[in-house]
Structures are given as C-alpha cells and as structure tokens.
User: Fold this.
Amino acid sequence: MSAVGWGQIGLSALLIGLLVRPLGGYLARVYAGERTLLQRVLGPIERALYRSAGVDAPAEQSWSEYAVALLVFSIAGTAALYLLLRFQSLLPLNPQDQPALTPDLALDSAVSFVSNTSWQSYGGETTLSHLAQMAGIAVQSFLSAATGLAAAVALIRGFSRRTTGTIGNFWGDLTRSVLYVLLPICVIVALFFVAEGIPQTLAGYAEAQTITGGTQLIARGPVATQEAIKLLSGDGGGFFNVNSAHPFENPTALTNLVEIVLMLALGAALTNTFGRMVGDERQGWALLATMVLLFGLGIAGIYAGESRGNPTLASLGIDQTMGPLQAGGNMEGKEARFGIVGSSLFAESSTASSDGAVDAMHDSFLPLSGAILLGNMMIDEVIIGAPGSGLWGILLFCLVAVFMAGLMIGRTPEYIGKKMEAREVKMAALALLCAPAMILGLAAVVSVVPDGLAGLGNAGPHGFSEILYAYTSAAATNGSAFAGLSTNTPFYNLTLALAMFAGRFLVIVPVLAIAGSLAAKRTIPSSAGTLPTDGLQFVLLLAGTIVIVGGLIFFPALSFGPVVDHFAMLAGTTY
Assistant:
C-alpha cells in the first residue's frame, strides 16, 4: 500500500461525495414532476412519447398495477432482445457476418440485460453484430436501469405518502428516468470517452499489418455510447470480452477514474433523493453513511491483501515489494496500466454497485479478496448498488433493523413515521431471501451434477468458489465472473437465466407490495420511544444487521470456498 494509492481512493470518494447532493436534488425534482433545466428541450419529446403510446402519465397506479406494468414491459423487452439475437445474421449492421446466437445463449443474454445483470457467456466482439450491441444490449441497459429507478421511486413514495392507494405511474417514471437522467449524462460521457480514444464507429473491424509481416483484425464498433450506459446503468456488459481491461473500453487512468465514479454516482445520489422526498435529508445521509462504512471496509481489505502479494510466490523467494521498477503486490490478472489500487478500487466498486464491469480478472485475486467481492454481492446490493436496486436493498434491511430493535424494546417498530407490521416484514423477508435461495440452491445442485462439474477449470475450493461466484453474480444482478468457469452450455445458460430472473423480478414485486402497503398507512408522530434513524446509532445498527444476516446465510458457503482456498494457499496445497 502507499499514500498515492490511498490518495486515489480518497479522490474517487471525494468526487462521488460532491455529486451526491446536487444529483440527488435533481432526481427528486425529476420524479416529483417539477421543472428542470432540460424541461424546455425534452418536455415536448416526453409528451409526444406519451401520446404515441396512449399513456396518461398523471394517472396514478396501485402497487399491483405498477408491478404488472413493470413485469409486462420487462417480459416484452426480453422477447424483443431474444428475437434480435436469434436473427442478427439476417439483419443489417453486421459487418463481420456474425451468426445467430443459439436458443439457450440468446435466452440467457436476453434475461441478463433486461434484468440489469449483464452476465455474458460470450465474447462481445466475436459474437454480436453492431445492431445487436446498439439496439439490443445498449437499449436494454437504458431500460433496465430506468425500471430499477422507477421501482425505487415508487418505494420512496410509499414512505412519503399518507393514506393513499397509489404509488405513481410506471410509464411516467420509466420515461422520465431515460429522458431526464440516463440519456443526458450518457451523451456527455460518451463524447468525453471519444475524446479519450474510445472508438465510436459503424465500420467493420480494421485490418492491420504486424511487425512480422502478418495481418491482425482489430475489433471496433459503437463502443463509446455503450460504455457510457453500461457504467451508469449498473449493467456492466462489455463491448469486448475483457470488458474495461480492454484499452478500447478504458484507455487511460482518467477514464478508469471516471468509470468508477459513473458506477457509484446514481446509487449514492439516490440516498439524498430519498431524504428529500420523505422530508428529512438526514435519513438519506444515514443510509449513505452505512454504505460508505461497508464500502470502506471492503476496499481496505482488498487493497491491503493484494498489496502484500501472493504468499505462494513469496515462498519461492520472488520479490513482490513495490519499487521504482515494479508495481509490487499480487499483479496476476491485474491491468498493468492501473496497478493494484486501480484494479482493487474498480473491483470493489463493481461488486458493491452491482455493475459487473471489470478492469481485472477477479479469478486472479487472492482468496480472501475474492470472499470480499462475493460478500459485496451477497448482501443484496446494499453497498451503493445499481440505480434503484441499491436503495431498495438497503431500505429492506432498514425494515429488518427497526423490526429487530422493536423486538428488543417490546415496541411496534417504526421507520420514517410508518409502523412496520406483519405484512411489511413478511414482504421484506421474502425479498431478502429470494436471492440467497437461488444462490445457495443452484450452487449446491451445480456442484454435484455432471453438467455443472464439466464447466470447471479448477478443482477443490477454488472451483467451488467459481460456481458460487457465478450464481451469486447472477442472482445479485451483478454480471461479473470469476472467469475460470465455462458457462456457454445449455445447462449453465438456463440455470443462470433462472437465477437472474428470480434475483431481479421476484425481489421487485415484494418491494412494490411494501410501497403500496406503506402508502396506505398514516404517519405516526415521533415519541420518546421512537428509535432515531438518522444518527450514528442507527448507522451501526443497520450495518451490523446487514453483516449479521449476510454472515448467517452465507458464511458456511464462503467457508467451503474462499476461506478454505486461503488456508490451502498458505499450506502450499494444490488441486
């Protein structure tokens, strides 16, 4: 570790911190229907979209109507992307004549991007046409992020409203998320990326002469636009197979910093949006403080572990210390341009934000670092999270925390002036347990059936870690991979698609049910027995609840994987 490294981490935190309040305030105005600077330009487009779709945006929906609209829209998006991938060989903008995807891979990919997961069992530059990348992958990155934002705003309305049966209009929230939030930011960021050297072209691959007299095909395409939305949306799907480790996706240290900020900006800002919309910004700051505490513990653990180097190499007398001629530390699988700190911070941000983009191979991180990356995803996206899902994830844990506190003092739990009764607690438990059930259940099955074991590139605890990581990444809608597992088979494509669908939509429905239930309740004034939820005491209670619940559910699985792998590495055991 070095002061320069911690300085890079501090700079990233500072930039995100400076964005939280202005971006959070802007989001609150957008979803409240207030005028913004973009209203004059985008307002006519918004109204034209409503007219063409026959949508009455001011008309409010109950939670069930909101949920049905969200699910129908997502299923339609899955079908459209599936058909595009199946027939891309017959469609235009396919300069490399990429063939159609197989049915199982097309389904896996369609569910992946509609669920905001971006799990890729394929190499983008060798599999997809330009049309599939733009009209398929990039479009769904916008729409899946907008769907998450809409669900989060609906939940916020549940807390802020009193005795009403509605939580907003899904079509209006979806449209405003794309027009006023995602699209303007992505236009600016894409132009910046082009200026930094990221390609943006509809031409085919370039053919170059090598120094040995041979030829080499250099993949290129509409990369900058997809790069901007993949990072901002929490989707993370790379145009290239190696994602943000590729110089055409992430060419400089500056773009690496910007990509980290993009992954975290919306998720962090939504805490301030929550505080503003419920009428108490301190509530939002408490949520953000909890996220920052957990994020800080994670990055400290990864950076410290990777900086010390690999004990196996140290036992062979190999010098891994930092010096003028070498970066030092465990550089296996790291991007040499960014070093230990850049790769560690990117990996922590990727798994904490549920983005899934990578600038290093997570399979090459040390076992305990891998355990931290797994842990980030296992606790339901509460450390910043993807746009929308991060906020509702931590709010679900807030309900659990106040429920536990209520049990300890013998009082009906309250949060933001709303009583948490049996219905809300049951729905919160259902939402929080859905992803763990898919992760542990599918990982257990895959670890013993021949079709699952056939994809392993490693035996022993590391092989189990690869399986556990794959289904954790899928059910947590992250999309990154340990990379040592071959998953482009019908068995893996179908089981991963199941995990991604359940991890996204079987969580959103209970969240919207909670929103509807809360919106119908009266607000209760605070009393001497009310647990304060805007201070340090609640931050520690909430963080402790998240760690304890996550540990109780996942520690046995982590023990069989990364923890055993760590001790095997120290003992010099090979598999």
Summary: The chain has a mean pLDDT of 90. The chain has 19 helices and four strands.
